[in-house]
Design a protein that fits this description.
Layout lengths: L1 H6 L5 E3 L24 E3 L6 E2 L13 E3 L4 E4 L13 E3 L4 E6 L12 E3 L4 E4 L13 E3 L21 E3 L11 H6 L5 E3 L6 E2 L11 E4 L4 E4 L8 E5 L4 E2 L3 H5 L11 E3 L12 H4 L21 E3 L6 E2 L13 E3 L4 E4 L4 H5 L5 E3 L4 E4 L13 E3 L4 E2 L19 E4 L4 E4 L2 E2 L4 H4 L6 H4 L2
Parallel strand pairs: 1-2, 2-4, 3-5, 4-6, 5-7, 6-8, 7-9, 8-10, 10-11, 11-12, 12-14, 13-15, 14-16, 15-17, 16-18, 18-19, 19-21, 20-22, 21-23, 22-24, 23-25, 24-26, 25-29
Antiparallel strand pairs: 27-28
Length: about 425
């Protein structure tokens, strides 16, 4: 192979990947290290394993290095720090472990992107160290960065993409970092133990994605930017009125497509709004502005304490494909407009609420529906005969991936009624569609 490459003279670009029919099942081939003129080396998904040789430091012309999706292990060699022309380094989804210090970055003045997700590395740099580069992308999911919030981020960076999820941080976020959030296109700080309050999220980039789920944030829901596309603050300790949360931007067009607030404390107590406006109807807990977010595809509000009847404003969200309101205290009849107004629904979860009455035949108009959960309510009567219309549920695989939020749902119908002396009826999709 080395002889064959030398036949072509100066080689600056090399791709070796199983995607192109290669399979090495070994460490990085030693002859590659001798090609110092190489500027781009892509060894992604090449079944590589073992340790990287110090000889990689000889490849000083490298601008782009991609070693992702392999089984490379042990420590990263110190000679990585000699790749002074490197702009993009991707070592994600390997088995690297050990400590990473300043030496690996000292000479990398041109570095713009560092992808390291899915490794077990420990970042051990001096808190006062100032990186010599300006990153726009850094992905360090599963690294050990904690317990303090990493001061490395408070440097001359121009982040657009940052992933520090699952990084063992158990600290509050300093004000200087919150001031940086306006520049992010993608920010993932999920699955840590970060505590404190979330301030207003003012975002410059349109269609931004923020993931704060599975932390210890408390206090009120933050004001959100009209530029947010996906916001996940599920599994925290936030409490507030949805009216305060959504209605603060009513004068702007929102492009929000997915809102995930599962497992918080929304409406754990009556909001002060009820003390100020006498005898508000129950559906005031859902703000009228919700129906003006016309681009909303995915709404997850499960496991809170939301009250009242489903507001008719929801039928204006005609792009909704997922509506998950499981585990709240909604009451009243299941409205007919769910079937007539939200005909793009794929996932409808109204389980574990206080709905009563019969199941409306209009739900059968949801021909794209693949998940329907009405269990653990006070429903009565018989199952609609037209329930056999749910042919989209009859798929070979049992689970469906909700794409915007990467949430898996079991493809099924779950319905519990109080018919026949409160005998339960819970059936799988396959049983109902026979």
């Amino acid at each position: 192979m080395a002889t064959a490459l030398s036949f072509f003279g100066r080689v600056t670009f090399v791709i070796l990947s199983t995607s192109f029919g290669n399979s090495f099942s070994s460490s990085i081939l030693d002859w590659l290290y001798s090609f110092s003129p190489i500027e781009s080396l892509s060894l992604f998904d090449a079944s590589l394993q073992g340790k990287i040789s110090n000889a990689i430091g000889n490849m000083t012309s490298l601008i782009n290095l991609d070693l992702s999706d392999n089984k490379l292990s042990k420590n990263l060699p110190k000679s990585f720090g000699k790749l002074k022309n490197l702009e993009i380094r991707d070592i994600s989804d390997n088995l690297f472990e050990g400590d990473i210090d300043e030496i690996l970055f000292t000479n990398l003045t041109n570095l713009r992107q560092f992808h390291g997700n899915g490794n077990s590395l420990n970042l051990k740099v001096n808190p006062n160290w100032i990186p010599p580069f300006q990153l726009d992308t850094m992905r360090l999911r599963s690294w050990n960065l904690g317990p303090q919030f990493p001061p490395l981020l408070h440097s001359k960076t121009q982040f657009k993409v940052l992933d520090i999820s699952k990084s063992r941080i158990s600290d509050s976020i300093p004000s200087w970092f919150w001031q940086m959030t306006s520049q992010f296109y993608y920010l993932n700080i999920s699955h840590n133990q970060i505590h404190g309050q979330i301030p207003a999220l003012l975002v410059t980039y349109p269609r931004a994605i923020f993931d704060f789920n599975s932390n210890n944030f408390s206090g009120l829901l933050p004001r959100i930017s009209s530029n947010l596309r996906i916001l996940d603050i599920s599994s925290n300790y936030l409490s507030d009125s949805l009216s305060n949360f959504l209605c603060s931007r009513m004068n702007e067009t929102m492009i929000l497509e997915a809102l995930i607030l599962i497992q918080n404390r929304l409406f754990g107590q009556k909001p002060k709004l009820l003390d100020e406006v006498a005898k508000l109807v129950d559906h005031s807990f859902f703000p009228p502005s919700l129906g003006t977010i016309r681009f909303l595809h995915s709404l997850h509000l499960a496991n809170n304490r939301l009250l009242g009847e489903l507001p008719p404003q929801l039928k204006n969200c005609q792009h909704l494909t997922t509506l998950d309101l499981n585990g709240n205290e909604f009451k009243g009849h299941i409205p007919e407009w769910l079937g007539l107004g939200l005909q793009n629904l794929i996932i409808l979860n109204l389980g574990s609420n206080k709905f009563h009455g019969s199941i409306p035949n209009e739900l059968c108009a949801l021909v794209s529906l693949q998940v329907l959960d009405l269990s653990h309510n006070n429903l009565s009567g018989y199952l609609p005969k037209c329930i056999g219309n749910f042919r989209a549920m009859f798929k070979r695989d049992d689970y469906i991936l909700e794409s915007l939020t990467t949430t898996f749902y079991r493809r099924e119908v779950r319905i519990r009624t109080n018919n026949n002396n409160e005998k339960e009826e819970e059936k799988s999709a396959a049983a109902l569609l026979r």
